[in-house]
């Protein structure tokens, strides 16, 4: 039975077939901040079953996914077996800030989608930012999405439902939230919680690392209360 977030993502779970709504919303908006090109090299940190790779594999030069879940990486590799520009790399579950799998490479676009809330503390997040700066190409853009910057689980849920209603996906999202309430996800969340980092702390970390960062003006994921940070290299 899963007792930590690391355990949870190694096993089959309720998100396997339910990430598409959030990704569809994100994909409709992300190019206002990060334009794509056929020559761009993309790093997808926390790539899951390959939603970003599904959408972008024929629109960029290369795309590399990093994930702690070997199961998700196997799903992604199977889907993209005939796409030679798509790569999935295993992150060590006990050393997930070790980016040696892509050491020496430089990326034009770096995406971190709905990952940071599962980290253990702000020090790990600052290390993530430092790692990103090490693999970013000159002129690169990094977008760190779905950040929880204040307490408010109820507001978060209401926001998800409201946007799902406007997207015509209210019933499917309601069913997902109901399943999550009676799943290992709820148990692990009760035990471990989510990492919450206020906006000012994010900006302070970026300042310490000499990163040019700002929060984007509008929500670009279904969770309206969550924020997205754009870093320009």
What report would you give on this structure?
This protein is 38% helix and 19% strand. It is of the alpha/beta class. It has a single domain (22-150, 196-232), classed as Rossmann fold (3-Layer(aba) Sandwich), CATH 3.40.50. Strands 3-2-1-4-5-7-6 form a 7-stranded mixed beta sheet, with helices on both faces. Helix 4 links the parallel strand 2 (62-67) and strand 3. Helix 6 packs antiparallel against helix 7 (170-181). It is globular. The protein starts with a helix and ends with a strand. The model has no long low-confidence stretch (mean pLDDT 84).
How is the biggest beta sheet arranged?
7 strands, mixed
How are strands sequenced across the largest beta sheet?
3-2-1-4-5-7-6
The CATH architecture can be named as 3-Layer(aba) Sandwich
CATH superfamily: Vaccinia Virus protein VP39
Using only C-alpha atoms, the radius of gyration works out to 17 Å
Residue share in helix: 25-40%
Tell me the β content: 15-25%
Structural class by sheet pairing and helices: alpha/beta
Q: Give the domain tally.
A: 1
Number of E strands = 7
- Overall, the morphology is globular
pLDDT averaged residue by residue = 84
Assembly type:
single chain
How many helix segments? 9
Order of helices and strands: HHEHEHEEHEHHHHEE
* Span between termini: 42 Å
CATH fold category name: Rossmann fold
CATH class: Alpha Beta
Protein name: Methyltransferase domain-containing protein
InterPro entries: Methyltransf_25, SAM-dependent_MTases_sf
Domain Methyltransferase: 42-139
């Amino acid at each position: 039975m899963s007792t930590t977030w690391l355990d949870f993502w190694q096993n089959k779970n309720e998100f396997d077939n339910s990430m598409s709504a959030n990704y569809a919303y994100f994909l409709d908006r992300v190019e206002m901040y990060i334009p794509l090109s056929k020559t761009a090299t993309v790093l997808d940190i926390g790539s899951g079953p390959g939603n970003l790779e599904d959408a972008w594999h024929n629109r960029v030069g290369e795309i590399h996914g990093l994930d702690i879940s070997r199961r998700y990486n196997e799903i992604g590799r199977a889907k993209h077996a005939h796409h030679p520009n798509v790569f999935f790399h295993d992150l060590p579950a006990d050393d997930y800030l070790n980016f040696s799998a892509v050491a020496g490479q430089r990326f034009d676009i770096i995406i971190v989608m709905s990952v940071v809330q599962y980290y253990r503390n702000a020090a790990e997040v600052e290390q993530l930012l430092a790692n990103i700066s090490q693999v970013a190409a000159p002129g690169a853009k990094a977008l760190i999405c779905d950040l929880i910057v204040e307490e408010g689980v109820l507001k978060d849920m209401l926001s998800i439902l409201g946007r799902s209603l406007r997207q015509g996906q209210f019933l499917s999202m309601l069913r997902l939230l109901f399943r999550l309430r009676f799943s290992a996800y709820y148990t692990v969340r009760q035990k471990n919680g989510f990492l919450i980092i206020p906006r000012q702390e994010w900006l302070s970390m970026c300042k310490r690392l000499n990163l040019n960062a700002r929060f984007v003006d509008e929500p670009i994921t279904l969770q309206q209360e969550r924020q997205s940070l754009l870093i320009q290299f």
